[in-house]
TrEMBL record, chains A, B:
Belongs to the esterase D family. The keyword Transcription regulation does not apply. It comes from Viridothelium virens. This is S-formylglutathione hydrolase. It catalyses: S-formylglutathione + H2O = formate + glutathione + H(+). GO terms for cellular component: cytosol.
C-alpha cells in the first residue's frame, strides 16, 4: 500500500507528483501521476475532490499530464487529477507487446477472465478499487467521498463504463472521443475477444457503455466531445451516436451532451482545447 | 519561397499548421509550426500580429506547440504564434549530431563564421530575415509590422539577443529561463567557440544579452521567468542576475521584470504555467 514519489514537479501553482506502487490486482508495479492543486498543498484543513483521467491506447499517465492541460482548470477549481497507467507492465505474457491495441497500453479497463491475461490484466479492479484505496491512504488531503471520472478514447470508454457500472461512486463523468460502443467496433471486439473470449457475449455487454446506459435510472449529466476530423471516429471505432441513441431509447438522454467539434482530431491538441470545459463539468458536481 | 503545409490541426479555436520550406540561409529544408488564431482563419480583413517563440536545446518547433499552452492565450488575444526549429537539419557536417548542446538542435540563433558550421548554421539570419519574409509572403493575414519575440532557455537567449540587436523590429520581448549571459556559462562558451572560434571575443559579445543590454537606449519592458528549482539555473547556465545587473548599470532596468518562480523547473510544465502571462505581455505591445 505504500506509494513511492519518484518526482515532484511544480505545475500551475500546484504539484504534479510522479508516483509508483506495488499493485496486487495487476500483479506488478504501477506508475501513476497525481496533480495536487494549490488548495491541497497548503496547510488548509479542507479536503479537495479528485478527478480520475483515464488514458487511451498506447498512452501512460504521462501523456495527458504533459499535453492535456487539465492542470490549468484543476488548479483554478481546486480539484486533484489522477492519471493512471493503461495496463499492467512487464508481466511477460507472450504477445503482450505485439499490438498497440491489445495487451500493454491497452488494458481496456476490464478484468480479463481469459488466460493468460487474467494473470494481471485487471484494470477495472485496479482503477475502481485498488488505486483509490492506495491514493486516499497516502494522501489524506484528498476527499474520498468526492470522485469524478473522465477519459480519452479507450479511456473515454473506461470513464463511461466505470461510471455506469457503479452508480453513486463517481459524482460525474465526461469523455473525449470515447469508444462508446466497443462490442460493435474493431478495437473493442479485439480486446473483449482477447480478455473475455469469443463466447462471452454477456461479459462483453457488461463493459459496453451503449449497453450499460439502457439500465441507467435517474439523471445522467454527461459531457462528450468528439472531433469531426477524428479519423477513428470516421472509421467507426467510436460510435458515439449509438450511445446517444441507446440513452434516448432508455429515456435518460436529456442531459447527455454530445458535442461534435468541427475539424478537431483525436489528439491531445483536441483535448487541451476542451480540457477547461471538462474540468468545469466535473466541478459542477464535485463542488456543489 | 514556397511553403508546404504538411498538416493542419485544430487547436483552441484556431489552426496549427505544420509547415516546411526550402531555406537558403540554412542550406536545407526547414520545418516550423504556425498557430493561426480564430481571428486569422475567418474572412476578417484585419491582420493579426505575430509572436515568434524560439525553442531551447534539443527541441524542434513541435515541443512547445504540443506542451507549451501558448495557443490558449494566443487564441483569446488574436495573436499568431510561430515555432521555428532550433538548427539546420541533415547538413552532414561531421560531428553535427554528437552533442545535445552543439550542432543539430543547438543553433544558438547565431550566424556561424567558422568552418564547417558556416555552411548552414545561420539561425540568426534565418529567424530574423528569411523566415519572416517567407511567412508574410505565404500568409497575408499576418501583420508584418507587428512582431514580438519570446523563447525558452537557448531560445530565451535568442529572444533577448534578437530583440536587443534589432531595436524596433520586435514590439516586445520576454523569456523563460534564458541563457542570459552565454559568454560566461559552459553552454554559451561551447557554442560560441564552435560557431565563431576562441579568438572572436567581440563576436561573442555581439550575441550576449548581458553585453547587448549595455548599449540599449530608451524603455525596456521585459518579462523574464526563471524557476528556483531549475537545475540549469543552479548550475550557472542561465545567469539571469548578470543580465539584470547589466541593465541596472545601463540605467534601463526600470521595466525589466525578473520573476523567480518558487520550485519551478526547466520543463514545459513551467512554461505552460506562465504562458498566459507571456502572451499577455506580448499582447500589451502588439495590440496597443
Amino acid at each position: 500500500m505504500s506509494v513511492e514519489t519518484t518526482a515532484t514537479i511544480a505545475s500551475f501553482g500546484g504539484k504534479l507528483l510522479k508516483l509508483k506502487h506495488k499493485a496486487s490486482t495487476t500483479n506488478c508495479d504501477m506508475a501513476f501521476n497525481l496533480f495536487l492543486p494549490p488548495q491541497a498543498t497548503t496547510s488548509s484543513s479542507s479536503k479537495v475532490p479528485v478527478l480520475f483521467y483515464l488514458s487511451g491506447l498506447t498512452c501512460t499517465g504521462d501523456n495527458c499530464a504533459e499535453k492535456g492541460f487539465f492542470q490549468h482548470g484543476a488548479s483554478q477549481k481546486g480539484i486533484a487529477v489522477v492519471y493512471p497507467d493503461t495496463s499492467p507492465r512487464g508481466l511477460q505474457i507472450q504477445g503482450e507487446d505485439d499490438s498497440y491495441d491489445f495487451g500493454s497500453g491497452a488494458g481496456f479497463y476490464v478484468d480479463a477472465t481469459r488466460d493468460p491475461w487474467s494473470k494481471g490484466y485487471k484494470m477495472y479492479s485496479y482503477v475502481t478499487e485498488e488505486l483509490p484505496k492506495t491514493l486516499f491512504g497516502a494522501f489524506p488531503q484528498l476527499d474520498s467521498s468526492r470522485m469524478s471520472i473522465t477519459g480519452h478514447s479507450m479511456g473515454g470508454h473506461g470513464a463511461l463504463t466505470l461510471f455506469l457500472k457503479n452508480p453513486g461512486k463517481y459524482k460525474s463523468c465526461s469523455a473525449f472521443a470515447p469508444i462508446a460502443n466497443p462490442i460493435n467496433c474493431p478495437w473493442g471486439q479485439k480486446a473483449f475477444k482477447g480478455y473475455f473470449g469469443d463466447d462471452q457475449q454477456q461479459k462483453w455487454k457488461e463493459h459496453d457503455a451503449a449497453e450499460l446506459v439502457k439500465q441507467w435510472k435517474g439523471p445522467l449529466d454527461l459531457l462528450i466531445d468528439v472531433g469531426t476530423g477524428d479519423n477513428f471516429y470516421k472509421q467507426g471505432q467510436l460510435l458515439p451516436e449509438n450511445f446517444v441513441k441507446a440513452a434516448k431509447e432508455a429515456g435518460v438522454d436529456k442531459d447527455v451532451k454530445l458535442r461534435m467539434q468541427p475539424d478537431y482530431d483525436h489528439s491531445y491538441y483536441f483535448m487541451a482545447t476542451f480540457a477547461d470545459d471538462h474540468i468545469a463539468h466535473a466541478a459542477k458536481h464535485l463542488l456543489s
